[in-house]
Amino acid sequence: MINIDASNGSGGGDKMEIDEDLHSRQLAVYGRDSMRKMAAASVLIVGAGGLGVEIAKNVILAGVKAVTLHDAASVQLSDLSAQFYLSEGDVGANRAKACVERLQELNPAVLVAAATAELNDDFLGGFTVVVVTEGSLEDAQRIDAICRSRESPIAFIKAETRGLFANVFCDFGPSFHVVDVDGEQPFTGIVAAVTPGNPTTMVSCVEDERLHFQDGMLVTFSEVEGMTELNTQGPFRVTDCQKNSFKLELDSTQFSPYSRGGIVTQKKEGKDLSFKSLTEAIAEPGEFLISDFAKLDRSPLLHVAFQALDAFRVANGRFPAPGNAGDAESLLAMAKEVNSKMAENATLDETLLGHFASGSSAELNPMAAMFGGVVGQEVVKAASGKFHPLHQWFYFDCAEALPKEPLSEEEVKPIGSRHDHQIAVFGKTLQQKLGDLKLFLVGAGALGCELLKNFAMMGAGCGENGLCTVTDDDQIEKSNLSRQFLFRDWDIRSMKSAVASKAATVINPDFKVKPLQERVSPKTEDVFNDGFWGGLDVVVNALDNVQARLYVDSKCVYFCKPLLESGTLGAKCNTQMVIPHMTENYGASRDPPETEAPMCTVHSFPHNIDHCLAWGRSEFEGMLENRPSEVNKYLKDPEAAKTAIRSTPDAQNRGKLENVVEAITLDMCKTFEDCIKCARLKFEDYFHNKIAQLVYTFPEDSTTSNQTPFWSAPKRFPHVLNLDPKDAGHASLIQGLSILLAEVYGVPRPEWAGDMFKVAEVAASFQLPKFQPKDGVHIETDPSKTSNDASFSGTDEEAVIEDLFSKADGAIASLPSGFSLTPIEFEKDDDSNYHMDVITGLSNMRARNYNIEEVDKLKAKFVAGRIIPAIATATAMATGLVCLELYKVIQGKEVEAYRNTFANLALPLFAMAEPIPPKREKFRDMEWSLWDRWILEQDLTVDEALKYFREKGLEVYSISFGASLLYNNIFPNHKQRLGKKLSDLVQTVGKCQIPDTKNHFDVVMACEDDEGKDLDIPLITIKFR
After folding, report:
1. Taking Cα atoms as reference points, which of 51, 135, 36, 41 lies closest to residue 85?
2. CB atoms < 10 A from the CB of 347, how many?
3. In this structure, are residues 628 and 823 in contact, taking their beta carbons and an 8 Å threshold?
4. Which pLDDT tens digit goes with each residue over 24-77?
5. How far from chain centre, in Å, is Cα 290?
């Protein structure tokens, strides 16, 4: 069995340090244990072509111990079609040696080397994983046999891309243990009741959250009161899983009676796999991994085709020539011979085999990028045991991207260009079209870096008339370096778009790219104006938020531009093609919004660590960012602030004013000791006083109006905390909070502030008055409420506010001239700034109040920092898929050729499907979709517009411009607008001054058909100039 143990490597075993600032997004996917195992793995990659270097890039970024690139071949100019770390100056040099230095820059912690040694037992024995991307099938079988023969087998992967066709084979030995099959977090539930029984026991959970257990899963219990045997026995197998209940395969009739409480947690199981050797799997391939269910018979055909291609190469010493009919016939004959010897014969498609032969000499960048992600992930699985390996064959093709008509031998003949491989598949004409493309790439992060590299390698935007405009308003941070491969540590704090663009032009000096730093939004429509959008050929999104995606999507719909959309989440990725008039747009379907915990749960009744972390982040921002900002705003013009508050004397304004007064009176800090005292008071208020008031208002035995226990699941009964200066959690929070308060108030920090226990001792020395709970305090328990403020009558509210004004005036009088506070904006990726120390401390002390399991700073960063898990492999695959679709866009393919993809590299799962067509509306002889826009070529009055549509059988009853209602027939006074021009109403009612450079505006018209039914019609464009 391949046993993966970090302690076997020279990297330090379990004590190995992981740079959590650099790898935070990756740690969110793999976890520390898997990262440590990876850091002990040595990987050999045979073949330094496009696929080999893509795999190397992804594996180096993942953080293995060492990567060796093996290749005896010299660089040819055509290698530059897919190998992005080679240049024209490298022609004639060894391929592996030519790119080692650039690969090493990706991650200085990984040892990167080149080799040309014989691939024998002695050489191969030094590696954990061997990946073969080039060479004959016989050589691959020999290498696999050596890997399997070791006492601890070496994981073996064979992969190759040939034109638009590819395959991957994995052999991780006769016995391989998968530690975590899918990488998902274990499911949990809160127990509400347990009904004993034999042979099964019924468990009911609270109805607040749906259970995700499935029959056959194992679960464990904790915190169960009464039937404590559940806590100490198990794990138990579950059955009959329902929305809020399940059964245990357990006789519990002799257990103690269930009292209350309990957490049930899925116990994730590993899996043992057995792999065939390559020789065995060629003869008996078993089940193939399918990616496209429209091509169910394709994998057996390609299994034969790749064997036939190997036979052709052995016989001829070369690949079939592009467009050569004789070579295609020869390969077809060999395919028939191979097929006749298979246990199950494949159905051979002679046309497809002809395409396969013609493009087999080519290595295309998008295919290398896609499979660099797929194979890179298999390497990580072999090194760590994390995620389910590919078992064992995966064949893929994108034949639907090929030109509709056969290309002549002259059209695909090499021309001595770096793009000869691409020309061999698509021809010179398409290469010219690629060069002249005008692309707009939105985002230069992880996806953006990969896409820029791909565009440069493909020659997109490299022609005389071509241009790629890329925009991103973000700066490079250290955490970006683990997957945004165009950036280096010396680029930190530089603008992403500028650095990425410069790096892409190093990859291909002919690449024409224009970097911008503007966010694409309504606020930047002076930059990204009608002329800009109208001049584009293709828009490609590389964004990480839905709102920005929706805005770009709306622009692409308006201007009828193709939009290539993609996204990643951990090991998952998806791509969506938005093609004018053929597919639905991005905004047509969306994921449901994430559910948020009710305010009262977060503030008073948390029952999991996520609630505590949400509260910790909220308190951090309220205390250290929002309150100082409110103070500065008030101090800038106290009279204006008073006028605004008096005009709306509500609880919200009162709360803000209380914050201002408290900040410059009770919490005012002039020395570091003042900061410590303030931190101590906050600790006492948060974790003692408020909890003491809560349990005084709702004692442990209190009941609801229905006479049920108030403190029933999911509520957890809390207890107060008393400051213990020797407790590391207490000390760390007091220290971090004191230091940040000093930053807010501009107080110098003494050297001893770095000693958290010293700071905590000072905090403990302050004598605080004993807290006395009060009667009549209102604590919100209604989950539907969104505010935690108590309600007051109007008169009392005004009196309280006036009293606060007086206190503020008195405090301001004693402040030095020009006094202001320094708001602290939360930054999760700087471990030296104490931000995460404070949020972790706040959250964990909150958890301790409620007996909830605490978390370390890394887990707190994931949740409170809202970190999106991300890895280089999924990013590479997504961008490879996007660029395969780009080939289709520039050829104007029919909708049947396009593919939307969802993939989960952890499983692995690939699901490709034809895009959904847009919803179409019909009325009389008219038909339209969201892609249509009705353009009226004159400056109409309202009445003229109504008559125009009435003649078409449509009764317009409302006209709006943005948020402004220009006309609605239910308002009598709107009749006077009938004779006014729409352009005048846009300016007078809509308050919009149409610039002289713009000759049109858009309005939305709501109308009914001749039967009085509402009908959605397209956007109306009025060309008034």
Report:
1. 51
2. 10
3. yes
4. 999 999 999 999 999 999 999 999 999 999 999 999 999 999 999 999 999 999
5. 25
Coarse DSSP helix, strand, coil percentages of the chain, rounded to the nearest 5 percent: 40, 15, 40
What phi and psi, each to the nearest 5 degrees, are found at residue 225? -100, 140
In contact, 176 and 1? CB cutoff 8 Å: yes
Among the residue ranges 117-126, 213-222, 557-566, 781-790, the one predicted with the least confidence is 781-790
Are 445 and 542 contacting, i.e. CB atoms less than 8 angstroms apart?
yes
Quick one: pLDDT band at residue 15, thresholds 50, 70, 90?
low
DSSP category for residue 701: T
How do beta strands 926-928 and 933-936 pair? Answer: unpaired
CA 514-520-525 angle, 5° bins: 95
Beta carbons of 43 and 69 less than 8 angstroms apart: no
Q: Is residue 14 pLDDT above 60, yes or no?
A: no
What does the alpha-carbon distance between residue 1005 and residue 1023 come to, in Å, rounded to a whole number?
16
* Confidence band, pLDDT 50/70/90 cuts, at residue 896: very high
Token readout for 496 is: 């992403």
Strand partners, 941: 981
Confidence of residue 374 (pLDDT cuts 50, 70, 90): very high
**Omega before 392 cis (within 30°)?**
yes
In whole angstroms, how far apart are CA 503 and each of 59, 510, 806? 20, 12, 60
Distance CA 837, CA 844 (A): 10
**Beta-carbon contacts of residue 295 (< 8 Å; ≥ 6 apart):** 397
Q: What is the pLDDT of residue 787?
A: 56
The Cα angle at residue 51 between residues 47 and 54, in degrees rounded to 5: 110
Amino acid, res. 161: T
First to last CA, the chain: 77
Return the structure tokens found at 907: 């499983």
CA atoms 384, 388, 391, 395: torsion sign: negative
Enumerate the β-bridge partners of residue 1006.
958
Alpha-carbon distance of 890 to 249, in angstroms, equals 59
3-class state of residue 462 by DSSP: coil
Residue 790: pLDDT band with limits 50, 70, 90: very low
What is the per-residue pLDDT for 9? 37
Question: Given this model, what pLDDT does residue 10 score?
Answer: 36
Q: How far apart are CA 903 and CA 880, in angstroms?
A: 13
Which of 464-473, 549-558, 778-787, 820-829 comes out lowest in average pLDDT? 778-787
The predicted-structure confidence for 741-760, as pLDDT tens digits, reads as follows: 999 999 999 999 999 999 99
Position 19 scores a pLDDT of 87
d(CA 25, CA 395): 30
Hunting for tokens 């584009």 — which residue is that?
A: 536
Measured at the alpha carbon of residue 42, what is the angle toward residues 39 and 47, in degrees to the nearest 5?
130
Report phi then psi at 451, rounded to 5: -65, -40
3-class DSSP assignment, residue 382:
helix
Count of Cβ atoms closer than 10 Å to residue 973 Cβ = 6
pLDDT tens-place string over residues 378-397: 999 999 999 999 999 999 99
Q: What is the DSSP letter of 223?
A: S
Q: What is the pLDDT of residues 415-460, one digit of tens each?
A: 999 999 999 999 999 999 999 999 999 999 999 999 999 999 999 9
CA 542 to CA 451: how far, in whole Å? 8
Cis peptide before 199 (omega within 30 of 0): yes
Per the structure block, which two tokens stand in for 417? 């260009």
Tell me how far apart the alpha carbons of residues 658 and 800 are, in angstroms, rounded to a whole number.
Answer: 10
600, 669, 678, 992: the active-site residue: 600
Tokens of 325: 């009919």
Enumerate the β-bridge partners of residue 572.
Answer: 569, 904
Tell me whether residue 600 is one of the annotated catalytic residues.
Answer: yes
DSSP strand E in 230-269: where?
Answer: 236-239, 245-248, 263-267
